[in-house]
Fold this sequence. Notes:
- The chain is α+β, with helices and mostly antiparallel strands.
- The protein has 3 domains: 35 residues; 112 residues, Immunoglobulin-like, CATH 2.60.40; 39 residues.
- It is built from 3 helices and 11 strands.
- The strands form 3 sheets. It has a 6-stranded mixed sheet with strand order 2-11-10-5-6-7, with no helix packed on it.
- The protein is rod-shaped.
- The termini are far apart.
Amino acid sequence: MKIKFKRQVSSSLSTLRVSVIFLLSNLNQSNCFKLTSDVIGSDEPVKANVGEDVILPCHLEPPFNVSTLTVEWRRNKTYVHVYRSMKHDPNQQNSHFINRTYLFCDEIGKGNISLLLRNVSKEDEGLYICYVPKLHSQVRKGNITLKVGNTKNTDGADVTAVIIAVITAVFTAVIIAFIAWYIRKCWQNRKSQFSSLLIFIKKNVLQ
């Protein structure tokens, strides 16, 4: 009787163990109850033109606060940006990227570790890696490809130039019109004075 009871207990425990493992496995595959976060880059290349600012997207899924962890951005073996001890660490940053890279510090706690790269040049083109070394996850790196066009988008500059040109033309036309009016008025005054002088001479000198 005792042996039968032990077998039933053992069987029940085995069933319970399998159920728990199955439940944890399902929870781990769910985005809502995932036990670890993965670093996600971009499957599509990011495009920018020379001289523009560009955001290289990277985040953790599901969202996870990495503000106390180290975040590294690299291009090949070059350090683009290093976030360490809750601030930017410039010691390892390549000189080509100094004062041109920024993380969104307010968003790091939400798992957003995207990088802002300013004043893009043709030399910036290539594969970027977003890496969280101490993240407890099998996916600690995200890849982002940046493609850079040759020319800067100058649509905004063109509109500004047109507006300035129109204002300058109108202002110049007003000035020219005023000068013409002033010269004409002065000529009319002088003509009137000359006529008065002739009348005076006729009346007082020639008679």
